[in-house]
Amino acid sequence: MGGPKGIVFDVKEFALYDGPGIRTTVFMKGCPLRCSWCHNPEGLSKEPQMLLPKEGPPRLSGQAWDAGDLAGRLLKHRDFYQMSGGGVTFSGGEPLWQWPFVREVLDQLEGVHTAVETSGHVPDEVFDEAMKAFDLVMLDIKSVDDRTHRKFTGSGNARILSHARALCAGKTPFIIRLPLIPGVNDSLENMEAAAWFLKGAKQLVRVEMLPYHQAAGAKYGMAGVLFDPGFDTNRQPRAHSEPFKRLGIPVIVF
Ligand code: SF4
């Protein structure tokens, strides 16, 4: 078949935390950021790669899919999506890094609620198109402070904040996700800044805080990626939700 192929490293069925209802989540390979806390190091490289676990046989992460084949698999659970108010979520890695493929799959999911979990670190034209194509956008804001963002993700945050502004002014329902990393971005000041940034956004469904879990480090070895977090992984992150509540922004802590 023609059209771009997509490199996918996992398809998780009956997912409950990647948007509303019961969903199927597609994990696309490749990400332009290098967050030092990343939970999916096997999703960083764009290419398929062998994972070498300490125990058990090697396994391949990343498989090339045809858009039609993937859409067919996703549509198998259409009844569950309808019954539960769920749908399909694209995650990663950074799913919008493979936008031509993702768009082709979306075109074949008519009538299914679709969502994307994105870092927002993608070209403006891709983000614009995605805002129109998805029913729900879930955007990570890792730090409102550019220097902190650059230090812990490898890139500045200007493009991401510009896309967050576009969501605040736009018509697409969106969720902002804040990974809480101890000593990096869990300060009251960062949360105050994020809350004021989002104040008044009409389509903001809620803010979700996602505390760092130590388990993330375990996967690095098998993916051949150095785990060098640069923060105290033993400390519990703080979850300052008050700044959002004060401004009337719904917020939940996972
Ligand atoms: S944006 Fe997400 S997938 Fe990419 S490095 Fe950061 S945490 Fe990992």
Short description:
The protein is of the alpha/beta class and 254 residues long. Helix content is 29%, strand content 24%. Residues 31, 33-35, 38, 40, 43, 92-94, 119 line the site of iron/sulfur cluster.
What can you tell me about this protein's structure?
This protein has helices at 67-75, 78-84, 99-106, 124-133, 146-153, 158-169, 188-198, 220-223, 242-246, and strands spanning 6-15, 23-28, 49-51, 59-61, 63-65, 87-92, 113-118, 136-140, 174-180, 204-211, 251-253. With 254 residues, the protein is of the alpha/beta class. It has one domain (6-253): Aldolase class I (TIM Barrel). A hairpin with a 7-residue loop joins β1 and β2 (23-28). The termini are far apart. The chain binds iron/sulfur cluster. Iron/sulfur cluster binds next to loops. Iron/sulfur cluster binds at residues 31, 33-35, 38, 40, 43, 92-94, 119.
Structural class: alpha/beta
How much of the residues is beta strand, in percent? 15-25%
User: What's the CATH class, please?
Assistant: Alpha Beta
Largest sheet composition? 9 strands, mixed
Q: What's the helix-strand series? A: EEEEEHHEHEHEHHEHEHHE
Give the tally of structural domains.
Answer: 1
Residue-averaged pLDDT, rounded? 95
Instruction: Report the principal-axis shape.
Output: globular
Q: Give the radius of gyration.
A: 18 Å
